[in-house]
Design a protein that fits this description.
Elements (H helix, E strand, L loop, with lengths): L2 H22 L1 H24 L4 H24 L10 H12 L11 H16 L1 H4 E2 L2 E2 L2 H24 L6 E3 L3 E5 H20 L7 H28 L15 H5 L2 H14 L4
Antiparallel strand pairs: 1-2, 3-4
Length: 275
């Protein structure tokens, strides 16, 4: 089977699983996002730290899981906000563990423990604020977010492949040499088209202007998120963050745009009291 066919089949299967879990129930959403978050953190730690500081990494992942679960029960089931402070327990354990690490020759890498918490765990945990409104679960808005992000990716890839040679100006050559400005504008165009379709089909019930601006904001943030992950891979000389999805690489490769676009989109809607 050709690589393109493998990529298409695995990508389609992954999208269908995502949509099913987001629309089925709050529990399928929770399990899906927990698995994605843990998987991305494992990939990030493997890429940036190799086999170093395993115990601290376990504590950090435990802290991330605690944050997600506690927010899940807080916004979804009314659990008192004070219990979220329990997240600090595994975080403090990470700090305490650092005191007992014998080999501190590469101790600078220890900071990557906290980077993953901010870069991966925080956005994934805060997704609970998108799917729960006044204690009621609905994954529709988050599905709309993903459709806009996927449209941006598809537009950038399609325009880049078919028009990249004609318009070869690079977007950010020092970090991602294959990305072009024509791909950037193609991604922006298709993400706006997707947001308009979502508006007219009734899935996004915000004023049209906000749907369009939301798509623009999420596209820009998604490109930055993509470049941010590419910067890490280039520094550590890694092609893909993992190989979980055949033909696509790792989970972090697939969700690099989402980690920045999703919270930025939510912030935009919150500013205008639409979330």
């Amino acid at each position: 089977m050709s690589n393109s066919m493998v990529r298409a089949l695995s990508g389609t299967g992954f999208v269908l699983v995502m949509l099913a879990c987001l629309l089925l129930s709050e529990y399928s959403f929770g399990v899906l996002f927990l698995l994605l978050m843990v998987g991305m953190m494992i990939e990030f730690y493997r890429m940036t730290m190799g086999d170093s500081y395993i115990v601290a990494r376990i504590f950090a992942i435990a802290g991330a899981v605690s944050l997600f679960v506690l927010l899940f029960f807080n916004v979804g089931f009314g659990m008192p906000l004070k219990y979220i402070s329990l997240v600090l327990v595994p975080i403090f354990l990470v700090m305490i563990n650092s005191l007992y690490v014998k080999d501190k020759s590469e101790f600078g890498r220890f900071s990557n423990i906290y980077t993953a918490l901010l870069y991966i765990a925080a956005p994934m945990a805060l997704s609970n604020l998108i799917v729960f409104q006044h204690g009621h679960f609905s994954g529709v808005l988050l599905v709309c977010f993903f459709i806009i992000i996927w449209a941006s990716d598809i537009g950038a890839y399609t325009f880049g492949v078919y028009l990249g040679k004609r318009f070869p100006k690079k977007l950010f050559e020092t970090i991602s040499p294959k990305k072009t400005w024509i791909g950037y504008w193609g991604g922006l165009f298709l993400s706006v088209v997707a947001s308009c379709i979502l508006y007219y089909s009734g899935f996004m019930q915000f004023p049209l202007i906000h749907c369009i601006v939301l798509a623009v904001v999420m596209h820009v943030a998604g490109v930055w998120g993509d470049l941010f992950e590419s910067q890490w891979k280039r520094f550590y000389n890694v092609k893909d963050s993992g190989d979980v999805i055949p033909g696509h690489g790792g989970l972090l490769d697939r969700f690099d745009s989402t980690l920045m676009a999703m919270p930025i989109g939510a912030i935009y809607l919150a500013i205008f009291n639409l979330l």
